[in-house]
Amino acid sequence: MAAVKKFNKIKMNEVSTMTKIEKEMKIISYTSKALSIILGMLFLSFMLGSCNNSADDEIEGVEEAILTTAPNVPPPITRTHATKVIVNLETQEVVKRLADGVEYVFWTFGGSVPGKFIRVRQGDLVEFHLHNDPTSKMPHNIDLHAVTGPGGGAVSSFTAPGHSSTFSFKALNPGLFVYHCATAPVGMHIANGMYGLILVEPKEGLPHVDEEYYVMQGEFYTEGKYGEPGLQPFSQTKAIDENPAYVVFNGAVGALVGDNALTAKKGESVRLYMGNGGPNLVSSFHVIGEIFNNVYTEGGTLVNQHNVQTTLIPSGGSSIVEFKCEVPGTYILVDHSIFRAFNKGALGMLKVSGDTETEIYSGKQKDEIYFGSENPSGEMLKASALQGPSQPTTAMTKAELLAFGKTVFATTCQACHQADGKGIPHVFPPLAQSDYLKQNRERALAIVLHGLQGEVVVNGKKFNNVMPPQALDDNQIAAVLSYVLENFGNHGGKVTPEEVAKIRDKKK
Amino acid sequence: MNMIASLILVSGLIFLTQLSGQQKGALPKVTDMVLIPAGTYTPFFKASNNAKVKIEAFYVDQYPVTNEQFLEFVSKNPKWRKSKVKEIFADSNYLRNWKSDLELGKQVLAKSPVTYVSWFAAKAYAAWIGKRLLTVEEWEYIGRASSTKTDGVKDAAYKKVILEWYSKPGISELQSVGKSIPNIYHVYDLHGMIWEWVLNS
């Protein structure tokens, strides 16, 4: 068996492009890893002082790691000793849904984006088996940020399609670490979804919480715009410009909404293992309506901040956030670089079930009209520039009056009642052939002057909405109402400014 | 799954180059080779001194070696049959998409590139037919040529075609050789098919 393995290695070396890539990788990884080792050492000496030396832990027993697909997290580790943990992870290139009607060829660790969640304990010896599916077009490898060693495992795990690689590392540093493919072109491998999280639990474990979830942000650079249907190819140009069509949680638009939302019960504590695969963007992670009680900034082991609204997650980095669900309802997870949330997909949900909790949050207690601080009673506002200049209507010909009325209608009424006066079914009542208008002309004038709120029946259909009082003067109201009465199949009629003034005064 | 895997796996087709000065009379029928003129290029993975690579003129097959051609090889060289090959020269994937030692089976196209070949087997085939595998430098020299330019590296459209291939899902069957757009030297299928063995590392 050993002979066979050695032989495989010889074969691999014959493909010179591979070895050259490896060499290239080595240079990059040596530099970056050296830096992180130095930082790691500084961190250890300053922060922990009396840290146990994980390298000396005795390894007892062997176990196969439980790997989970997002948003699930493997159970906490209850072991109190280091062990040998065997991880089997397969790289697969698969076609999956990116958004409704949009597909993408994802390159994955384990068949979905993000890759499988790996959970080990500080001091464990991890024997990593990376398998590359025979149908893959590309070689792949893995750089685990939890590895202390050149390339984070990248060089040792370089694997051609239909082959497997094995390497081992000791999990010296606890924390939440990103892993990703580091095969050239690295950016394309990551942009296609090759990232995931590995949690190295500290020896003492993490404090108990009721729910743990795995969420990872990443962006996708498709040739087509957001929502453009079909199988979308990767756009190198957009990737270089850092201009993604999609920014998503867990690999697709809507991966964490509706039936796929995260769930918790009122009173429960929740821990989110948040990663950011990038490849380019930094996440401003925020949960609308929650405040993070604890944040392990950048996925380290120190709870170094409490009461956080929004936490930064670097590309190729992570964060652990904890909060308690005091009030039931739906909480929206967003990248608070907010156009990404509402226009590119970076939006998820946490649904908290349980009895209403009005002590902390009342819900909506009142809904009423606000006329502005200078006009509390809803009296006429000064005609604003929006409505256009007013003109005396008394001396106008009928044609002039209707033309003026049409202008006022276009700027004031049309947005709701529509250009054809037919309104919008169930929402805005029609002015066209309106029995309501015909029944009572004074009432119509009063509505324009003072607004209307509540249920009305127009042409047999119920409407229940709010029309604010209009900031129009007497001439404008006379003109616009004359225009409405003379158009849209209505019965005709002329309204004078005096008539309007009379109703305005009457109300006073 | 196995069927799909079998057709796309690595260890793919072979391009051969003409050995000069060998007894050509003894060669099997030599067809479909083109002459590649001598030249220089800067490799993608640059040397530390940024040196250019110099290439002598050589003849190369226009098409990758097909299943049909390789079948002829194993039928005349029993030691390279699936059941006979030594473990040290080919792993358990060797010709795994073939039905048996001397049958391709219905799923395997006679004219598509032979896959699941070990490097040793590829090298042996080349020697049998009086040629050799391309060196990596020779491969890159012709691989970087687009249909209109010897240096396709600066050709954005050419790069796009190659990148787009990676954006498409893996296919269940490799098509027959010679159906792609040839490069400027009239060599086919250097991209968009499968990995290829080269002589050196």
Please state the overall shape of chain B, judged from the principal axes of the Cα atoms. Answer: globular
Determine the strand fraction of chain B and express it as a percent band. 5-15%
Beta strand count of chain A? 23
Distance between the termini of chain A: 100 Å
How would you characterize the overall build of this protein?
The complex is a heterodimer of chains A (508) and B (201). By secondary structure, chain A is α/β, with parallel strands linked by helices. Chain A contains ten helices and 23 strands. In chain A, the strands form five sheets. In chain A, strands 1, 2, 3, 5, 7 and 11 form a six-stranded mixed beta sheet that branches. Chain A has a six-stranded mixed beta sheet with strand order 12-10-14-19-16-17. Chain A has a five-stranded mixed beta sheet with strand order 13-21-20-15-18. Mean pLDDT of chain A is 86; it is low at 1-31, 37-52 and 380-386. Chain B has 201 residues and is an alpha+beta fold. Helix content of chain B is 23%, strand content 10%. Chain A binds chain B through residues 3-4, 7-8, 11, 13-17, 19-21, 23-24, 93-95, 105, 133-138, 160-163, 188, 231-234, 236, and chain B through 4-6, 8-11, 45, 87-88, 91, 93, 118-119, 136, 159-160, 163-170, 195, 197-198, 200-201.
